[in-house]
Structure formats: C-alpha cells, structure tokens
Automatic annotation (TrEMBL):
<keyword id="KW-0732">Signal</keyword>
<dbReference type="GO" id="GO:0016020">
    <property type="term" value="C:membrane"/>
</dbReference>
<keyword id="KW-0325">Glycoprotein</keyword>
<dbReference type="InterPro" id="IPR050932">
    <property type="entry name" value="TM2D1-3-like"/>
</dbReference>
<keyword id="KW-0812">Transmembrane</keyword>
<feature type="transmembrane region" description="Helical">
    <location>
        <begin position="35"/>
        <end position="53"/>
    </location>
</feature>
<feature type="domain" description="TM2">
    <location>
        <begin position="31"/>
        <end position="77"/>
    </location>
</feature>
<dbReference type="InterPro" id="IPR007829">
    <property type="entry name" value="TM2"/>
</dbReference>
<dbReference type="Pfam" id="PF05154">
    <property type="entry name" value="TM2"/>
</dbReference>
<keyword id="KW-1133">Transmembrane helix</keyword>
<keyword id="KW-0472">Membrane</keyword>
<protein>
    <submittedName>
        <fullName>TM2 domain-containing protein</fullName>
    </submittedName>
</protein>
<feature type="transmembrane region" description="Helical">
    <location>
        <begin position="59"/>
        <end position="81"/>
    </location>
</feature>
Length: 104
C-alpha cells in the first residue's frame, strides 16, 4: 500500500513548486529492488545489500558473522522486497516533512 499526497483545495504555485522539488528529491534517494537483489547475490554473506539500504548496524553484524552463518542471508532474500518498500516510504516521508508537506 502506497501513501498518496492528499490535496483538498486548489494548490498555489509556491506549493506546487515545493511539491515538485520534494518529489524530485524523493525520487533521487529511492532504493532500487533490482540493485538490492544483485547486491544480495554478490555480497549476501557480507551484508552488502543491507549497507545499500542503510542498515549499517546489521550490515556490520552480518559482515563479522558471515550472514549469521548464512541464516540471515537466506531470510533476507524473502524479506528484501518489503525492506526496500519500507526504506523508500521512510525516505519519502522524511523528504516531504523537510519540505513542509504533509501526507495523508
């Protein structure tokens, strides 16, 4: 389920400009599932896909335990699409808040 920007009244030009800037910034910080999957394939035991998604603490733990002896690595392939969606939603919300736009 994606969140959408709720616009109730006609939007003035300054707000449209802020919205366009926020959407552009949001698009620039989005993480791509394909990239995450490729990183999982190449560096799964070392947590490369988690570094890509910004999970630094867990990435370091995977790095030193070889992916929890492979258990975390195998679990991650199942949860990777959801994790990418969560990361992208959080980043988008942060961008919208920074630009003073509320989502509803």
């Amino acid at each position: 389920m994606g969140t959408r920007l709720a616009i109730v009244a006609p939007v003035s030009d300054p707000i449209k400009y802020r919205l366009l800037r926020a959407e552009s910034e949001s698009a620039s910080v989005r993480k791509d599932l394909k990239v995450a999957v490729v990183l999982w394939c190449l560096t799964g035991l070392l947590g490369g896909h988690r570094f890509y998604l910004g999970d630094t603490g867990r990435s370091v733990a995977m790095l030193f335990t070889l992916g929890g002896l492979g258990v975390w690595t195998l679990a991650d392939v199942l949860f990777l699409p959801r994790r990418v969606r969560v990361v992208n939603a959080r980043r988008r919300a942060e961008v919208m808040a920074r630009h003073g736009l509320l989502e509803g």
